[in-house]
Write a sequence for this structure.
């Protein structure tokens, strides 16, 4: 049962939540889990179809606009609705809100890649029918969203009418009360083409500002001979109806193909029609088989098996499946904070990708991880321009939130000021190199990103009293903004600078000609590299002698503590109830900051400092961000705080399934989903990837009997199985390898399982 998520609620609140939970996607295209026939008046729905990176530009309005503030923001758009299918029984329209729903089950099949809704319905006039909806978004054919409906009359039904439509009159969801959502500009698409051609229903839309085009071309088929089949065209879309006079079962199938000018170029309609032509001989059953084959390969390297807790097993598989559905699989896209499941954060890409999501794919599906890096590389020129706008002569400052490279954050203290994103991206390139040994990628892409981000730090910071300092930035904790020497930022910048210098030397030794070409293109001098080395080696990392902790920044420990214990529950999250300046004046953290730095770069501090820091910051962290609890879980595991590690992990594992942050309706929390995997693999299993190789320190929550996962490393596939009394390592594929198990070497050879007590 842990491969299937089942829902049956029909109440108002859960309908919206289930739209997110039952969403489908393939990294390119995503559709929320809406009812094909719609809802009745009074029941709200966020009816959504999205293409990763398909967006429009919107003018940002400021009361007071200063130099360097972004002029525009980018916004993912809700696209042409191809979900619509209405069913009529002798003139009575099927609805989940009228007549009597005798039974209803909605399932998301995570091993098979489709969703279904099985309904036994009695109409107000007593007609009875079983309706079985199945839908999928193809992993093998990225443009395809298919729906299959089997209708089985049970009592009193003489005639069935099916009305299918595609509708170009769509808009985005808005909520003016929640800063995590868009508050305007709901309508951003013009309907530029509506027609029917050769059995295809065609709608094309064009964005207002970017002039990007998107087309939906639909085809339908039915297994029964109909008495009537016709099309109805309006200025908004096309409807197609079938009338079937019989009480025998029938099957109706609808294929929606989406193409966009961002990837397909023009003409988008003709490209979609060509894909539809290829689908003429492909049955829905064959599509299901393709889904199963794709997912079998995915789960072979990605599954995490939990023995002892079915709810956690369901949670981790759900999280991994949704990450797969939302992660971009081409260099044109990344993974949005809400994936392709909703419109929260307007489809923007954040640092969430590199720190919380990228590691999942790096260790399980490195080709997907590579595409995420290629996307960042594709916006490197925009990052260079942003650095210049921010006053830097050289370097690359990656945008805090973006889709195609332009900064989309209008609130700079908690946006643009988070310079650490450039170091986060550099960190992911370094981790990719350590895990894959892909020297060609380093030469072609990685070195340039490391050099340009190192330049940013060299220009941002300054030497004082023999230490390199970085002033006026914001770290991960968005309740503390514009500070000097944020520990996380400085630590990550140090890592960035030293690795840039190291890669430069590696280049000199292994590809001097390539280095000369890159130097010429970047106008990079040896003196700059010396400066990187010097800045990295002398980076100031704030430390408080009295508490014996890493200080979050120069002023943080001087502030009064926020009284979290006596803050009313309804005042959380604090960002929705207090002015930012109020929060900035206190010791209170939205999320892990220094604790996160100690996870990512644990060798910069001794165990005592890491432990003291964890204990200190834990008391003042609200975990208002879904990015926070997983980090506290990981570090609690490292410190041996087993109960805390498990408690924090539980907060992440089913965050969306149980709607603990109360905003799952707006889309799923992708970074938290990655954090759940991190909590198991980097937390309980203690995985670390460093220059010296792989090390693990597995522990087992007392609530579980065992856990098992796989990981890929330098062309190898390794299985790790942790039971109550032992750990087993199996090199499934690849050359022999020595890893560290609790600091002791363990050698692995293919096919030979090594058990360590």
């Amino acid at each position: 049962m842990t491969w299937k998520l089942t829902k049956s609620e029909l109440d108002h609140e859960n309908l919206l939540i289930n739209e997110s939970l039952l969403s489908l996607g393939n990294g390119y295209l995503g559709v929320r889990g809406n009812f094909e026939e719609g809802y009745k008046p009074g029941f709200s729905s966020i009816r959504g179809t999205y293409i990763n990176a398909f967006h429009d530009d919107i003018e940002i309005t400021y009361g007071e606009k200063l130099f360097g503030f972004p002029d525009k923001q980018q916004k993912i758009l809700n696209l042409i609705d191809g979900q619509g299918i209405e069913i009529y029984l002798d003139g009575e329209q099927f609805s989940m809100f009228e007549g009597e729903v005798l039974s209803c089950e909605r399932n998301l099949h995570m091993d098979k890649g489709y969703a279904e809704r099985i309904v036994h319905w009695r109409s107000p006039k007593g007609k009875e029918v079983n309706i079985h909806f199945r839908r999928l978004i193809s992993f093998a054919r990225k443009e395809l969203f298919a729906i299959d409906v089997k209708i089985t009359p049970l009592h009193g039904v003489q005639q069935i009418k099916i009305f299918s439509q595609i509708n170009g009159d769509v808009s985005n969801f808005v909520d003016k009360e929640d800063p995590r959502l868009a508050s305007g500009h709901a309508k951003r698409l013009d309907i530029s083409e509506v027609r029917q051609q050769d059995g295809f229903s065609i709608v094309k839309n064009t964005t207002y500002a970017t002039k990007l085009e998107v087309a939906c071309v639909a085809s339908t088929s039915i297994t029964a001979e109909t008495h009537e089949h016709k099309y109805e065209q309006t200025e908004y879309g096309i409807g197609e109806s079938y009338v079937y006079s019989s009480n025998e079962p029938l099957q109706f199938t609808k294929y929606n193909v989406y193409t966009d000018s961002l990837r397909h170029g023009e003409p988008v309609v003709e490209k979609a029609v060509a894909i539809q032509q290829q689908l003429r001989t492909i049955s829905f059953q064959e599509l299901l088989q393709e889904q199963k084959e794709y997912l079998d390969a995915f789960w072979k390297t990605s599954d995490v098996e939990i023995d002892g807790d079915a709810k956690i097993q369901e949670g981790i598989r759900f999280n991994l499946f949704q990450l797969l559905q939302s992660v971009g699989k081409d260099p044109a896209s990344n993974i949005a904070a809400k994936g392709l499941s909703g419109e929260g954060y307007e489809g923007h890409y954040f640092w969430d990708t590199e720190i919380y999501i990228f590691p999942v794919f790096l260790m399980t599906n490195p080709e997907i991880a590579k595409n995420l890096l290629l996307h960042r590389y594709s916006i490197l020129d925009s990052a260079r321009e942003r650095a210049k706008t921010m006053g830097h002569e050289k370097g690359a400052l990656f945008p805090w939130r973006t889709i195609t490279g332009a900064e989309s954050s209008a609130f700079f203290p908690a946006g643009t000021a988070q310079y650490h994103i450039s170091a986060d991206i550099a960190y992911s390139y370094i981790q990719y190199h350590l895990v894959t040994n892909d020297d060609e990628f380093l030469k072609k892409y990685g070195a340039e990103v490391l050099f340009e981000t190192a330049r940013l730090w060299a220009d941002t910071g300054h030497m004082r009293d023999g230490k390199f300092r970085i002033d006026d930035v914001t770290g991960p904790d968005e309740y503390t903004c514009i500070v000097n020497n944020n520990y996380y930022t400085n630590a990550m910048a140090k890592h960035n600078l030293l690795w840039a210098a190291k890669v430069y030397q590696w280049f000199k030794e292994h590809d001097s000609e390539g280095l000369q070409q890159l130097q010429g293109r970047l106008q990079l001098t040896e003196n700059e590299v010396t400066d990187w080395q010097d800045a990295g080696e002398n980076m100031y990392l704030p430390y408080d002698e009295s508490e014996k902790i890493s200080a979050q920044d120069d002023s943080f420990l001087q502030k009064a503590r926020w009284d979290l214990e006596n803050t009313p529950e309804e005042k959380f999250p604090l960002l929705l109830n207090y002015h930012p300046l109020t929060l900035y004046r206190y010791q209170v953290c939205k999320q892990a900051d220094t604790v996160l730095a100690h996870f990512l770069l644990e060798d910069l501090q001794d165990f005592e400092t890491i432990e003291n820091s964890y204990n200190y910051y834990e008391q003042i962290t609200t975990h208002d961000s879904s990015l926070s609890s997983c980090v506290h879980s990981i570090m609690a595991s490292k410190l041996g705080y087993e109960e805390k590690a498990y408690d924090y992990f539980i907060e992440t594992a089913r965050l969306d399934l149980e709607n603990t942050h109360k905003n799952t309706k707006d889309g799923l929390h992708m970074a938290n989903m990655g954090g759940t995997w991190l909590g198991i693999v980097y937390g309980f299993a203690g995985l670390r990837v460093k220059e010296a190789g792989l090390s693990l320190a597995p522990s087992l929550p007392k609530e579980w009997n065992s856990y098992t996962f796989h990981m890929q490393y330098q062309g190898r596939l390794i299985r790790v199985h942790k039971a109550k009394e032992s750990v087993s390592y199996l090199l499934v594929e690849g050359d022999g390898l020595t890893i560290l198990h609790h600091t002791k070497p363990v050698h692995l050879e293919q096919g030979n399982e090594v058990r360590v007590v």
Notes: The chain is about 30% helix and 25% strand. The longest helix spans residues 487-510. The mean pLDDT is 96. The chain has three domains: 4-283, 309-690, 691-757.
